[in-house]
Amino acid sequence: MSLSPCAFQALYALLERHGGVPLAQVDRLASVCSERTFRKGETFLAAGEQASVAGLVISGLQGEFYLLPDGSRKAKWFARPGDVFGSLEDLARKGASRTHIEALSDGTVLCLPYAQLRDVALKDAGLTVFFIALIESLYRQKSEREYSLLMLNASERYEWFLNQFGSMAGLLSQELVASYLGISAVHLSRVRSARQQSTARR
To answer: With CB atoms counted within 10 Å of each terminal CB, which end of the chain scores lower, N or C?
Structure first.
């Protein structure tokens, strides 16, 4: 199935950010990927299913979560247009996914079949660039998330969040933002209030 111009451009842009590959090889990669539209609330990957596909956001916003026994969820990552998403751990170990991924807005995703792309990369050294780009993107998310939680205080994490996702913040509820920051909604309100007061004094 051929990709739309927007999906092909998103794939090409991802490769360009990681050193690029010849256009003919981009076509080969595109041939094993598929494009899928999502409505807000629709599931990309349900917790407990086997993870086999990563995603590249073309439009909209995707969220990765851990689901708790009481039905609540802990926000793990938000993926914007141009971002790769999917739990690297779940994809690599081929077991039941610990991560739940769903659309937080209407949008479109380029689906990247992990095992198939790995096999393509192993057979073509030129395409190894793409697979490395995919792994690096997923690993970087994990690294950035860990750093923000372990090294930054709540106010600093909120500033980091705004720098990362500010343009999409309007699509996220206060509860989701607070969960992502690892604080309560009440604490988030205090952080926002203190930030507004500090801005007003400047």
So the answer is: C
Contact 182, 150 (CB under 8 A): no
Strands in 34-38's sheet, in edge-to-edge order, are 34-38, 107-113, 53-59, 84-85
44 Cβ contact partners less than 8 Å away, ≥ 6 residues apart: 38, 55, 62, 101, 102, 103, 109
Please give the Cα distance from 83 to 141 (Å, whole number): 10
- Rounded Cα distance between 100 and 65, Å, is 5
Q: Return mean pLDDT, the chain.
A: 87
Could you tell me the strand order of the sheet in which 100-103 lies? Answer: 43-45, 100-103, 62-67, 73-79
Cα 11 to the chain's mean position, in Å? 15
Task: Return d(Cα 144, Cα 111) in angstroms, integer.
Answer: 23
Q: Tokens 């209030």 appear where?
A: 193
Please report the pLDDT score of residue 94 as a whole number.
75
Per-residue pLDDT, averaged over 80-107, amounts to 89
Asked if 131 contacts 92 with a C-beta cutoff of 8 angstroms, the reply is no
CA separation for the pair 99, 49 (Å, rounded): 9
Q: Which residues pair with 46 in a beta bridge?
A: none
> Measuring CA to CA, which residue among 83, 73, 63 is closest to residue 138?
83
Q: Name the CA radius of gyration of the chain, rounded.
A: 18
